[in-house]
Automatic annotation (TrEMBL), chains A, B, C, D, E, F:
Protein's name in the database: Manganese catalase family protein
GO molecular-function term, one example from the UniProt record: metal ion binding
Cofactor: how bound: Binds 1 Ca(2+) ion per subunit. Binds 2 manganese ions per subunit.
Binding-site residues for Mn(2+), renumbered to this chain: 35, 67, 70, 161, 194
Stated family: Belongs to the manganese catalase family.
Residues annotated for Ca(2+) binding in this entry: 58, 62, 226, 228, 230
Alphabetical list of SUPFAM superfamilies matching this protein: Ferritin-like (SSF47240)
Amino acid sequence: MFYHVKELQFDARVSSPDPRFATLLLEQFGGANGELKAAIQYFLQAFAARKPYPAQYDMLMDIATEELAHLEIVGATITMLLDGINGELKDAAEQTLMTEFLKGPGKKEELLQQAIVNPQFFALSGGSPTLTNSQGVPWSGTYVDANGDLTVDIRSNLASESRAKLVYEYLLQFTDDPQVKDTLTFLMTREIAHYQMFASALDSIQPNFPPGVLQGDPRYTHTYFNMSDGGDIRGPWNQGRGAWESGEWVYVSNPRDYVEQTDGLTNAPVEGTTETRESTDAMNRQLGQQRSTEVKSAIQSDPNQWSKFADGSRSSSASVPHVEERVKSK
Amino acid sequence: MFYHVKELQFDARVSSPDPRFATLLLEQFGGANGELKAAIQYFLQAFAARKPYPAQYDMLMDIATEELAHLEIVGATITMLLDGINGELKDAAEQTLMTEFLKGPGKKEELLQQAIVNPQFFALSGGSPTLTNSQGVPWSGTYVDANGDLTVDIRSNLASESRAKLVYEYLLQFTDDPQVKDTLTFLMTREIAHYQMFASALDSIQPNFPPGVLQGDPRYTHTYFNMSDGGDIRGPWNQGRGAWESGEWVYVSNPRDYVEQTDGLTNAPVEGTTETRESTDAMNRQLGQQRSTEVKSAIQSDPNQWSKFADGSRSSSASVPHVEERVKSK
Amino acid sequence: MFYHVKELQFDARVSSPDPRFATLLLEQFGGANGELKAAIQYFLQAFAARKPYPAQYDMLMDIATEELAHLEIVGATITMLLDGINGELKDAAEQTLMTEFLKGPGKKEELLQQAIVNPQFFALSGGSPTLTNSQGVPWSGTYVDANGDLTVDIRSNLASESRAKLVYEYLLQFTDDPQVKDTLTFLMTREIAHYQMFASALDSIQPNFPPGVLQGDPRYTHTYFNMSDGGDIRGPWNQGRGAWESGEWVYVSNPRDYVEQTDGLTNAPVEGTTETRESTDAMNRQLGQQRSTEVKSAIQSDPNQWSKFADGSRSSSASVPHVEERVKSK
Amino acid sequence: MFYHVKELQFDARVSSPDPRFATLLLEQFGGANGELKAAIQYFLQAFAARKPYPAQYDMLMDIATEELAHLEIVGATITMLLDGINGELKDAAEQTLMTEFLKGPGKKEELLQQAIVNPQFFALSGGSPTLTNSQGVPWSGTYVDANGDLTVDIRSNLASESRAKLVYEYLLQFTDDPQVKDTLTFLMTREIAHYQMFASALDSIQPNFPPGVLQGDPRYTHTYFNMSDGGDIRGPWNQGRGAWESGEWVYVSNPRDYVEQTDGLTNAPVEGTTETRESTDAMNRQLGQQRSTEVKSAIQSDPNQWSKFADGSRSSSASVPHVEERVKSK
Amino acid sequence: MFYHVKELQFDARVSSPDPRFATLLLEQFGGANGELKAAIQYFLQAFAARKPYPAQYDMLMDIATEELAHLEIVGATITMLLDGINGELKDAAEQTLMTEFLKGPGKKEELLQQAIVNPQFFALSGGSPTLTNSQGVPWSGTYVDANGDLTVDIRSNLASESRAKLVYEYLLQFTDDPQVKDTLTFLMTREIAHYQMFASALDSIQPNFPPGVLQGDPRYTHTYFNMSDGGDIRGPWNQGRGAWESGEWVYVSNPRDYVEQTDGLTNAPVEGTTETRESTDAMNRQLGQQRSTEVKSAIQSDPNQWSKFADGSRSSSASVPHVEERVKSK
Amino acid sequence: MFYHVKELQFDARVSSPDPRFATLLLEQFGGANGELKAAIQYFLQAFAARKPYPAQYDMLMDIATEELAHLEIVGATITMLLDGINGELKDAAEQTLMTEFLKGPGKKEELLQQAIVNPQFFALSGGSPTLTNSQGVPWSGTYVDANGDLTVDIRSNLASESRAKLVYEYLLQFTDDPQVKDTLTFLMTREIAHYQMFASALDSIQPNFPPGVLQGDPRYTHTYFNMSDGGDIRGPWNQGRGAWESGEWVYVSNPRDYVEQTDGLTNAPVEGTTETRESTDAMNRQLGQQRSTEVKSAIQSDPNQWSKFADGSRSSSASVPHVEERVKSK
């Protein structure tokens, strides 16, 4: 259940209307990396976590709820950046939108130029936010990643927070309004804070690599295929140990020959690692059993109940105080 | 700002897993008439209402917030209808999904049949809700209508609640689980309650017809064009007064001739109503001015502030009690 | 079957090209509340109505067909607002688009500015309408609501007409061309007329509330949950009788406590209404049977035939007059 | 303007309900190659053709209108294939959908299996067509191609008709109902007929290759780049004259070396053709001027009027006969 | 398997940045008729062709791969047209985007005007291409047509190449940069070359009309329905032999009467052609058997293997030379 | 430029057709976490990296190209899982799809059940892959993240690889075919290898946190807001140092009060960190300048050329050897 508090989490203010920046800001309202995406993504991930991982569930819902608060801040800012449009549109008979604004040469041109920036602010939403990105593309459920596995979901979140942070960084360069800048800086900073919360949570799950349960086939884990011509550029991603705990990269400079010689890789040798197919199989069985037990043991049945209310048949409805009473005693 | 309460608004329970009904139920989670759509729609509409119409703003946010609670109930129910899948998937090495379930003839077939109902429950979300409708189409921002005018927005909501109610009515016929039925009945009933809240709110705005501000051109308001052949069927929608306060329908049985004779309707006479172009123009001016004033007078400036916090520069940060203190004194 | 008449329903004219207003006007061509949406929505709803409700079927098809005519008017207006582009583009070798227009300082800038308003008018459609809204988002089947129930479908239509009307009202403020204004006023007015047709048709179905067949659970129909903090604002939507025929709103000022005390609402009392679960069950059975019979009795079988042609096997093809004859005798 | 005729163009009939085939058939209702796509595509293309090419405009509107009639036939067939569902759903209290159908063992399973085929027929549209393809994806404006050039648009139509024909060919293999087969065969055949209409129309425009106005750069028109390894396979598409009127294919067996030797093709020689850059430039100028003139000369102005109604200011509205009169005199 | 070559197929260069033209050019990067669409479409069609039609498979993959190279050229050009943006954005603290550019009056306005052209270049992608069309609509899988039949697929490709060619023709008129023009001319020309490759390939398949296997019902192949009023315009598409090999068009001037007289066309006579239902049935059987055999005989089984590698169990992994060796011997 | 090699990177084989698993496998072909998404994402990111970061560009293109090879493997596997369908469909006259398969009781039912799993395999693509996910949703450009910043882009890739790996892990549980399992295991393992390449590359960029350039506002970086009721759960994400290099989490147990006391956070103190606004400002300036310089210094101009071809005007076309010669000398 949710509650709404009328005050914003941050004291968003706007110095003067700016329809163009309102348009850019839509990127964080109804865009692929915006606040709604973040709120819904963590909310969705929380369903699978609720029973087996109540601590992470609490974290996911805390952050999801904060993102809803941020969505509200962004929407409020957009509305204030558009203030005036709605009132003008209401005076439809006088068409003040045309007449009022036309007090100097070029004014009409300027007005139309403003209108055309985001036609839907003027012709559809009447000066309030649209659920679109900065180019009018409607928000889509495809923005949201929730895959029923915390080692994967949290990594999705680290990436989401990174993109959201960068978009605020870009946006900050397109407004001069100090009050809008304050709001954006607050919102940008929270993406950094959330990033670190997720990073901390991922650390607390061990092992967390590879994501999920299954280990890789050691014949293919440490191989780098040089799929492009030109100078063979070497770096920590194809030379030395890189991010591996042990072993080292095996560089295949001519993948085409290698593929042919290994019968389409089916006869590729294990190289670069001390793991064997036997060792990874054992790990697969052990970790699979552990994670499976964690999850399965948390399922309730007969019936499966989400919250911890008393049995529904317990009390007669007579024992419930009348509403007016409850209102008084609050 | 929002708060999350861990208990659901309704004590959702499930007797036993049922992936197929979980699929149908997605229609109310990530579908065009589902709970997310309702929550976001009212939330969006509230931005334009906040300043000029605080009472309606309060109502919109109350209902939006309740719809979020309903979204959570639907998601919890879907998760419980899928319970077991996630745990099995984790045991990836043993592939118990294959082996455990294959204890009798036809079992594997049945399992695959279940899986294929909604492949993404098994291969993507790992047994948690997806942000899609029952056929896998991602939720879309196009589901949401918010047009910056209460006489229009509330009508959009009456229609939304009607559709959501009907979908619950349909869904109720596809489950035998009494506990799921209880939950669906609760949710269906709330759509009816919300409908009446919106109907009451629309009544409280006068005049509310036509939606928006401008009156229709009296030459075209009362005309019914018979655009199809076959018997001319007459009903209250093209005969008599219908839903009009005054006047009556004018039935054009042969639109093609009528269009030609009136020079493409430009010379169509005013018929069926006592309104004139002068009377409607007067109304346009009067109502436009009134509504415009209501909205414009509510805009704050220098700066425009959404919430009622004290001036940000008032207190030095030193005056804020340290966090630990506040936690204690809670 | 449809026929096309080359004349428009309204004598649409344009004083001079205006690519920017053409862009705004796309909102009514390929937008979510535009004419195509309306035409297809009513057309879709008509399928379920055809057999059991032939009078309403006639109305739905009349209005759907008129909306197609309006789509044509909007498309024609957009084309005229873009006239000149297509011809210039054809002169590709001379690139007159660049050279012709560049007769004064700043002309090139202006041209590019125009082009960028809606790049697809210039680089894709060559000066004819695109099936998108004003921001280039392609028309989507999600805009259309048809749910197989007239008490719901007609309410969807009331909302659609309201939004379409408002968008025309907004658009009227962005053009000075008196002839375009005439066309928009005609189209806006027809949305009002259609609204009243639908309102009249809804009245003629009794009972029509709640939408669909099932009544609400009386424990939850009259309750208002105050889901947000701050001053508890009371209005006809949560106080008194509101839009209900009888009974009155029950205001739960602290939903969280109420939910806990009623075991997740499962033990909530019936309040605010004299209905009981027994009375609503009886109504459900009675109305369900009535509506079901209406629909089922209209289905034809062995075979199920849509139109009323004679039995296909009746006449030999020899008896059909040769085409040339028919053309002559027309 | 359009008119609707209640009879279908073809006497569509159905022997017995078949929800699964109804699902497949959606591919031709709301799918990418379906009847709505065709109708809207030709309708859209007609706008640019109306003034300069009235004969082709007539053809485009004739076929567009026939496709609308076909859309109606497909929708009617789907509705008949689903007959019974809507009536059962209305009996919501009795839940006959569950009880009636459960007369033998396995019946409930079968019902659910049917329901899950296309959940939206049962839980959303209540037994009428949805504006989606066979997998529930909403119809999209992206299906429609209209580019303001008949030599291109007609080619788009040849492809559209080909795909639509093939889909009917596939669908015919999934029903045994002879009456449904008759309908599908009729519809499939009309795609062939339309194909030939478009092919005939394309022939009547000369020159029609290359599509549009500009000729290709002769350095690059006749070159085939062998971009894949393995045996160099030669065929009429990279050897000999192929479909060219004159010249022959130039086969570059090693594009990588060729690109380097020609400085990124900027120094590629003219080969395989007798055209020169001068000859193609001349053709560009001549054809561009011709086509541009055709189009520009057809634009009307002051004002630009779509239909040929008399001047709107001519007659006073008094001279228009009263509606009742016109109805009588019809 | 693919290889990447760092050099572009064409020496793409840009004289100076031009964000507006970069926006227009997106139409060929992530638009419906762009290079990605072409690459993926031919790649998709190749799967069904690989085994039964290896020559056409080779052609499809050659052209698909060239289109990938073109996608890279377009992306590189867009990036160069935006050069400077990314570097400025990095200097986030100095906000040089605001300060550097503001050296004269009107400069800030101009900057914002540039930014708003395509907000995502500035606020999302940081100066690199987005996978959208010129109006920000994300690339969609619906752009791609692959139907498992070469007589249909190749026709889809003829249309695709035609549209892509025309869009380049339009785009050429919106840039003055001679180096960008060179690149566009190269790309436009290749669409013409590909068109002729496909046309040549289609000719090489006989019969290729009607597309697919089934012939049309001779009662409906040669009929033209005059679905619109006004002067009956005759042309090669409804008069004479048109594009048919034999027979002639049958013109039905009054479809409504004709439909009624033929009992919904079920009793329509065969006219305009010497084909009979018997002759087309025979052709259906013969061609169906031939094509079916071609395809079925190419399927391998036990197991079905895509490439021609040796049996995977042949060689022990010991026989594969160590990677370092292979690298040396390259 | 790309080259295609006819052999697959991995020797994909299939024991026997399995349309249902083909459907599930679409998730990795045209799904949100599939191979096309990966290929295009890295390809897109490479544009911004090409000039300033050639080493990372090389890595991005190597991996992008390998993902294209994987896309081909997945498509080949789907095609083999569907082998037989295309051949049967071609025999359209005999309708062997119906007759051949109907050799025993229940066979027709089974066939239809198979068909309905993924209607488009049968009625649209004719047995080849569709560019959709497992539920028929078309691939979308929204799946792709490329933001012009390596510290962000690489994090997006870590998340993408994680999800792709998990989906393969899930899919492995739905097939018994050992050869398909081999292919899936190879593909899954490569996601792990790519993950480590990206992790290694991210490590090689210092500093890489926070993503982008700007530091957070120290008043908000270390604060955790407890936005939900119930037991306050503490973990490394809201207690102690967590993933921070220094400082510690500040836990705000009652955000509502805290927000009010700090005037909407505008007066929140710096807590939990030793950073100050001055220290972060300094870092912003320094890092911004460094990164900006790296990028800007790599831009070429006059003209800006992507590849390193010689000046296009250098050699006359005469000096280029004739194609036939080049072919010989290869």
